[in-house]
Amino acid sequence: xxxPLDDSSVESFFIPGAKVYERYFDCPLDYQNSxxxxxxxxxxxxLVPPEKTIDCMKTMPFILxxxxxxxxxxxxxxxxxxxxxxxxxxKGYQVLLMDQRGTGLSCQISAESLSSQFKTDxxxxxxxxxxRADNIVRDCETIREQLTAGRSREEDRRIHLIGxxxxxxxxxxxxxxxxxxxxxxxxxxxxxxxVDTPDSVYRALYPRILSRNKTYYKKFPRDxxxxxxxxxxxxxxxxxxxxxxTLSPRRFLQLGLFFGVSGGFDRIHxxxxxxxxxxxxxxxxSYRTLHHIQNTQDWDTNVLYAVLHExxxxxxxxxxxxxxxxxxxxxxxxxxxxxRLDHLKEDQPIYFTGETIYPFMFDDYSELRPxxxxxxxxxxxxxxxxxxxxxxxxxxxxxxxxxxxxxxxx
Length: 410
Known about the structure:
Keywords: Hydrolase. One of its GO terms (biological process) is proteolysis. By secondary structure, the chain is an alpha/beta fold. About 40% of the residues lie in helices and about 15% in strands.
């Protein structure tokens, strides 16, 4: 059987500082029934220093990057001569940038793609159940086995990993399922809590979001009144976004997602200021501002980010059950994050929410609307098996793992 690295049909090209090979791997949709399962294509960009030959690639170690999400693809880097890729090259690595299953060029999932493949919501939900971290890392393992074929020493066949945000969750799953396949792992901003449901995650998260709101309003105190005026307008008008979505009060408050991002306060302030200025001058929010607000929210373009967001925590037969929404209705969060106009006190600041998923989104986001019932089915699903195995993780040997956490992450 021909080695994948010898396949001359693979498309390749150069960017500054790197040669890029665009590889596709054939993987089973369902690894539990791999012999009878339908197949999917998983896309990987393979980057090497320009001078490296195929023979060199057959001996060089691989470092695989796992993107954040869930539901986001890897972008083609502008060059290989800066950032972490440059460092990886200097340390002798070749780099793999994988579009995780269901993203980018790896059988990307959208409401449109699901409708073209399946007739019922139950079929769609069953299909989507195969796109969590356990199967993502099984794809990684398939790719590792193929690319390191022919290497005689076990240590030369082991892979090195770097994972951002949800990519760190995937690394933890990889270490749980295939601990002997990994040589080193680097996690940035994504250490999973090893729970069975997300409830405790949100009970810890909402106080953090509250704190970030208070810091935001301390920096921009005049935004307290600006947000009130915008909220009042959105509560009494139906505002349609350029792509047909609805800018409801709750959707507007989801801009708080950026409280955990560098420069996020300033970005939100700019949008608040623009919307408020529009209302003062025009009596409505302008197309330009609506366009900018719409483009800050990725759930229309990356639907997996919404439909599987809470499922990344679930294991051992547990369901998510719209955990973020349920916990939001617990005291004291129900009053602190009040958004209903007729329930707000006159002097009460209106607080933004964070990286949380709610049922209302499947009414307000145009590309999520067709998936409303699918999302409900997935929220009710009892997720079997383990994504994270604490016993295996505690017993790890000969694997170096390092992690960095963002101070203001939410």
